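Structural prep section.
Before we set up the soaks we want a predicted structure of the protein with protoporphyrin IX containing FE in place, mainly to decide which crystallisation condition to try first. Input record follows.
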Amino acid sequence: MARPLPYMERCRERYGDVFTMRIAQEGTWVFLADPDAVREVFTGDPAVFHAGEANRILRPWLGANSVLLLDEAPHLAQRRLLLPPFHGERMQRYGELMTEIAQRNVESWPVEEPLRLWPQMQAVTLDIIVRTIFGLEEGERMDRLRARLRDGAEMTTAWPTMAAMALLGPDRVGASRAFRTRIEPIDEVVFAEIRRRRGATDLAERDDILSMLLQARHDDGSPMSDQELRDELMTLLIAGHETTATSLAWAVERLLRHPGAMARLRDGDEEYLDAVVKETLRLRPVLPVVVRKLKAPVTIGGWDLPEGATVTPCIHLIHRRADVYPEPARFRPERFLEQPAGTYTWLPFGGGVRRCLGASFAQFEMKAVLRVIAGARRLRPVNPEPEPVRRRAITLTPGRGTEVIASAG
Ligand code: HEM
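Run finished without errors. Recording the tokens verbatim:
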């Protein structure tokens, strides 16, 4: 729990590319550090490889309709409804908003004094996701919505809540009064926004995700219910906010220690910016594994695995393979200019039918924010030593919160 990465590395050294851990409350996890084995999982039958079931710890927040928690036909049905807002060309329209939000944040940074960037990136990505989901202008309603959603997002990243979920199970915690009194104020504002938007007459012209989902239709022609909408909006918020903020904080943490790379960004090298984003997600993936629960016995990588086991494509170990990434511990964005990111060797967003819905959105957002930062401020580290990887509830974050000293332009 405390030092997952060195532990996984030692297991691989000792046992090879496929190894088993037996984890209290979780059962048997089979780690896969071999790209061919990972391909077998990502192209496998979704009726056998259940991801939703393996994520059930998040149910009290996300709700029973969440795309992240469903499997098989119900999963595909929700995923199909959610896809249109995440198509590549849509992202362009969100670009201006992303840049504007990043600029406003960067302008508020103190100059020539130590600053932790990670909380700033949290604020930026929260603003971006709330504005793109709900399409609200700044004002009192937006402030209230943002404040309550921030509270909701913080709950899922706090150790005590996640520990309670793991020990007591999501159903008991979800039904408890303590939990209900925290989630209800959030639901109240989200449902209010959904109801208000249902009455809007300009839905077809609006770009925000809620307006698009209100126009989406199930196979039988019926619209999404308020509860379905609420569950998916919470899912996008929780899945998209902290992950992107932390990846941005890592990008800056690495760039601070590689001034040559930072200089190339300042020169406006767009191809290199893309490579920086890819290399950050390779070297510092915020989620070190993805999980699938087996609903039937299968053979993977030549091993017979029983029903009920959890197979775990190990993002961290695959990303550190020296045969794919020479000198794997080095931050070297150039490697992605020399070779493209492979489907089964670059997995920060998982893969197959469960691949992250927000993958393009997140990379587009990271580029928009990094462009603003590199252009507007010169940064140096407070302490030249690299920041250690620290585990929060689920994500792996920079241990000192990406400490910087900024000076003007
Ligand atoms: C750098 C930022 C992000 C990272 C590293 C990340 C990573 C991931 C990973 C590893 C998964 C699980 C994939 C699997 O099991 O194979 C996932 C799923 C998902 N992510 Fe992301 N994500 C990021 C940003 C976002 C954003 C911005 C959104 C939405 C706005 C989003 C929405 C989702 C959703 C809806 C799923 C569930 C997909 C499904 O089960 O079908 N993510 N993400």
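Observations: The mean pLDDT is 93.
Flagged for discussion at group meeting.
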